[in-house]
Amino acid sequence: KRAIVWFRRDLRLADNPALCAALDGDFDTVVPVFIEAPDELGDEAPGGAQRVWQHFSLAALAADLEALGSRLIIRRGPSADALDRLIEESGATAVYWNRLYDPHTIERDKRVKAHLDDQSIETASFPAHLLYEPWTVSTRQNAPYKVFTPFWKAVRDRPVATPLAAPSELPAVWDRIGSESLDALGLLPDIRWDEGIREAWTPGEAGAHDRLDHFVDDVLGRYATDRDRPAVLGTSYLSPHLHWGEIGPRQVVHRVEEWLAEHGRDGDRADANTFLSEIGWREFAHHVLYHFPETPERPLDTRFESFPWSGDDEGLARWQRGTTGIPMVDAGMRELWATGYMHNRLRMTVASFLTKNLRVAWQHGERWFWDTLVDADLANNTLGWQWAAGCGADAAPFFRIFNPARQGERFDPDGHYVRRWVPELANLDAKHIHAPWAAPGKALADAGVVLGDTYPEPIVDLKASRREALAAFDQVKK
Ligand code: FAD
């Protein structure tokens, strides 16, 4: 008897319940397969930066499987057809996988399962991507949660299963079972815009564990304060690893709990709890997406369907390029372009700027992030954009509009973050770096800054555009 393990966004060997169940089952071999079928995911197919990640992550998984005596079989979709062929070639009687919760994937998996059931192939799916599956959490009225704090209160004390160990060896896959070459999938871009991503990250399970080790050993103890300072490495940088399932949330939580058991001081608990609540936001985002699958396109607060967005194409283009003349916004957008990542404080700032000061519809920002973030994740990105635009689950109230200059003064007080990503302003002193338009001529001249020449004039007046956004909001709020 043989089984197929269908890898998707669970590109890891440890804490992989589908793989473990197949290995524990009564099978003489287990065939690991990844099926490239972006068409099945519609608009949710990975964007450019994610595809780069996917390439290297698959390469890492293939090497890890080989090291244990197995092999990754890569096939092209449609998934049901690819599985049919592999079943025929291998004589497999079972297909196992780990569950995902995005609307297109759920629909595809249901179709594939029904197709396999029809042929009396055994199927089994497992929870690996989340701590709490979306249908296991509901309010007293048996409704989904729309507010984070009660959601988190309801789940945070539930026990988290101990992660499963990685197998120490794997059964061989016969040579006659062929695989598409990874390169032939064409995940890497023809024009090499991805060098910064390659330099900044190590996709794959080992890279994920290195990040977690570094974070727990050196950063977690100061997370509550440093997580908001974009100039320091104050967060875990686990988001793309979690998105591709190179590490699972149970492993992360388990590791944090071990650290707490070792350290156990009260102060540490605050840092750990703040971090765990961010993992909780990821759970919440998946809960909301599962229960409100229309939210990647439509506002959860339907009043915003009629919001008078500006349709400002030039504003959108300058936001994307990081040439708005607002240093914090430009720094964030350039970090994103260069590395496929943007610090959370900046994500909130640039999203507020786009949707409020430029009044560009949040879906445009969401799409840009989708294409450029290595951690682009339908659940987290949707929640983040609707939160920032003020139209989503537990969103910031619309009238709370981030002032990007003020954000810079508070969270990048020395200007290091802006200097790194906006080198035109590198010599401007910290006092003026977040609002060069208000700097005295001498300060600008000393720093070699000529507004409108070496660095753009601000694309909008922050105060006036804020007032206009509030007036537009008055139209929908009734
Ligand atoms: P840490 O602070 O170390 O947090 C640990 C983990 O918790 C993260 O890896 C992530 O999985 C989760 N997490 C943290 N904050 C959030 C949050 N607000 N919502 C959901 N999960 C969270 N995150 C993505 O993973 N993918 C996205 O596409 C994405 N788009 C966003 C868009 C906007 C407009 C905003 C405001 C936020 C978005 N986020 C997204 C959430 C957050 O910015 C990132 O998860 C975080 O910056 C990743 O860095 P980290 O791993 O170092 O985070």
Automatic annotation (TrEMBL):
<dbReference type="GO" id="GO:0003904">
    <property type="term" value="F:deoxyribodipyrimidine photo-lyase activity"/>
</dbReference>
<keyword id="KW-0274">FAD</keyword>
<dbReference type="InterPro" id="IPR018394">
    <property type="entry name" value="DNA_photolyase_1_CS_C"/>
</dbReference>
<feature type="binding site">
    <location>
        <position position="275"/>
    </location>
    <ligand>
        <name>FAD</name>
    </ligand>
</feature>
<comment type="similarity">
    <text>Belongs to the DNA photolyase family.</text>
</comment>
<keyword id="KW-0157">Chromophore</keyword>
<dbReference type="GO" id="GO:0000719">
    <property type="term" value="P:photoreactive repair"/>
</dbReference>
<comment type="similarity">
    <text>Belongs to the DNA photolyase class-1 family.</text>
</comment>
<feature type="binding site">
    <location>
        <position position="223"/>
    </location>
    <ligand>
        <name>FAD</name>
    </ligand>
</feature>
<keyword id="KW-0285">Flavoprotein</keyword>
<dbReference type="InterPro" id="IPR005101">
    <property type="entry name" value="Cryptochr/Photolyase_FAD-bd"/>
</dbReference>
<comment type="function">
    <text>Involved in repair of UV radiation-induced DNA damage. Catalyzes the light-dependent monomerization (300-600 nm) of cyclobutyl pyrimidine dimers (in cis-syn configuration), which are formed between adjacent bases on the same DNA strand upon exposure to ultraviolet radiation.</text>
</comment>
<protein>
    <recommendedName>
        <fullName>Deoxyribodipyrimidine photo-lyase</fullName>
        <ecNumber>4.1.99.3</ecNumber>
    </recommendedName>
</protein>
<dbReference type="InterPro" id="IPR036134">
    <property type="entry name" value="Crypto/Photolyase_FAD-like_sf"/>
</dbReference>
<feature type="site" description="Electron transfer via tryptophanyl radical">
    <location>
        <position position="309"/>
    </location>
</feature>
<dbReference type="GO" id="GO:0009416">
    <property type="term" value="P:response to light stimulus"/>
</dbReference>
<feature type="site" description="Electron transfer via tryptophanyl radical">
    <location>
        <position position="362"/>
    </location>
</feature>
<dbReference type="InterPro" id="IPR036155">
    <property type="entry name" value="Crypto/Photolyase_N_sf"/>
</dbReference>
<dbReference type="InterPro" id="IPR006050">
    <property type="entry name" value="DNA_photolyase_N"/>
</dbReference>
<feature type="binding site">
    <location>
        <begin position="375"/>
        <end position="377"/>
    </location>
    <ligand>
        <name>FAD</name>
    </ligand>
</feature>
<dbReference type="GO" id="GO:0003677">
    <property type="term" value="F:DNA binding"/>
</dbReference>
<dbReference type="InterPro" id="IPR002081">
    <property type="entry name" value="Cryptochrome/DNA_photolyase_1"/>
</dbReference>
<feature type="binding site">
    <location>
        <begin position="235"/>
        <end position="239"/>
    </location>
    <ligand>
        <name>FAD</name>
    </ligand>
</feature>
<feature type="site" description="Electron transfer via tryptophanyl radical">
    <location>
        <position position="385"/>
    </location>
</feature>
<dbReference type="GO" id="GO:0071949">
    <property type="term" value="F:FAD binding"/>
</dbReference>
<feature type="domain" description="Photolyase/cryptochrome alpha/beta">
    <location>
        <begin position="1"/>
        <end position="131"/>
    </location>
</feature>
<dbReference type="Pfam" id="PF03441">
    <property type="entry name" value="FAD_binding_7"/>
</dbReference>
<dbReference type="InterPro" id="IPR014729">
    <property type="entry name" value="Rossmann-like_a/b/a_fold"/>
</dbReference>
<dbReference type="Pfam" id="PF00875">
    <property type="entry name" value="DNA_photolyase"/>
</dbReference>
<keyword id="KW-0456">Lyase</keyword>
